[in-house]
User: Which sequence fits this backbone?
């Protein structure tokens, strides 16, 4: 059982470039998936055509235990302005009980943006802002239906 705490950065149309840069800084293995790749198939109509090639999820598993995640902010979530200045803290792992406990405490008194439910990639995933406005994402590996 494990729990991992790592930053998840938001970009405006520069996630690919930024994540590739971070790979040069931290080394390791970089995985980039677009909205089109992850939301394709029977959900293709739910992706704005302008977002298809943007990064929905990038993960750098760098050297020395560094993990950094990032994505482009899709048009429907764009707060406006020139710079996306929002950060989310991502909790992930396979310890269902621990992660659900964190989710319950973080979302209590806050605002749930995405309930903790089964995501298209098969894990349980949820997003919330806690009572202090800090953005959190919880991903429970392969846990199935919430």
Assistant:
């Amino acid at each position: 059982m494990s729990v991992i705490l790592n930053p998840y950065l938001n970009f405006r149309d520069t996630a690919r470039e930024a994540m590739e840069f971070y790979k040069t800084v931290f080394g390791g293995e970089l995985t980039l998936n677009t909205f089109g790749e992850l939301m394709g198939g029977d959900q293709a109509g739910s992706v704005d055509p302008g977002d298809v090639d943007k990064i929905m999820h990038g993960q750098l598993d760098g050297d020395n235990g560094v993990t950094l995640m990032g994505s482009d902010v899709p048009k429907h979530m764009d707060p406006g302005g020139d710079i996306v200045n929002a950060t989310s803290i991502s909790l992930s792992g396979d310890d269902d009980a621990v992660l659900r406990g964190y989710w319950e405490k973080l979302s209590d008194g806050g605002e749930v943006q995405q309930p903790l439910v089964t995501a298209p990639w098969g894990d349980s995933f949820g997003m919330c802002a806690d009572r202090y406005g800090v953005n959190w994402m919880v991903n429970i590996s392969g846990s199935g239906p919430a």
The helical segments are 15-26, 35-38, 96-107.
